[in-house]
Amino acid sequence: ILNVEQSPQSLHVQEGDSTNFTCSFPSSNFYALHWYRWETAKSPEALFVMTLNGDEKKKGRISATLNTKEGYSYLYIKGSQPEDSATYLCAFPSTGNQFYFGTGTSLTVIP
Amino acid sequence: DAGITQSPRHKVTETGTPVTLRCHQTENHRYMYWYRQDPGHGLRLIHYSYGVKDTDKGEVSDGYSVSRSKTEDFLLTLESATSSQTSVYFCAIRSDRVAYNEQFFGPGTRLTVL
After folding, report:
1. How far is CA A12 from each of CA A8, A17, A35, A43, A106, rounded to the nearest angstrom?
2. What is the pLDDT of residues A83-102, one digit of tens each?
3. CB contact under 8 A, A46 and B58
4. Within an 8 Å CB–CB cutoff, is residue B104 touching chain A?
5. Of the candidates B32, B28, B41, B50, which has an alpha carbon nearest to the alpha carbon of residue B90?
6. Nearest residue, CB atoms, B102 vs list A34, A101, A104
7. For residue A31, which residues of chain B lie inside 8 Å, CB to CB?
8. What's the pLDDT at A41?
């Protein structure tokens, strides 16, 4: 079992604030790092797949960076909106075809 | 849309009864996964399959069995349900056509064991 950790566990921000959270993962045998967005009562949806050290991906107001040498990825949300409220999961695929998920960061954006 | 359906979507059962959950996909993906979601634990892998009749255990496989007799269906069975198996169960497929193989999830099955 691989240890994938996310912090903080939950976050409450005001509408318009920018925020970020962290996923840490084993730095050895890196293959890829996935970010998912998970809204309540729905199923997780893929946001980003990060593969190279120094990768930076962006989708609208959401962006992510990757540091494979130190084993962490940051997810940033600029100008948070209520519709950004969700749980953000990272997942670390192992070479054995399994995905190890973090416990997620629950984001609540207060209007 | 990866064409994944789960049935049933909701089920209430009693301790000691067998339960089977079905995951169905329409796109012939090789890899299929069963996860359970519990507060404070995120998603934990129960079992996965890498082809017809090829399956392997995940992190929390005790009390669960799986079968995959055809590519499109992956069944999860609780032989004798216990209250600790009350959870939301998600099926996922791993696309063979997408670079770096991200997973796509079904809508989930909410199981309550009384």
Report:
1. 11, 10, 20, 22, 8
2. 999 999 999 887 667 888 99
3. no
4. yes
5. B32
6. A34
7. 100
8. 85
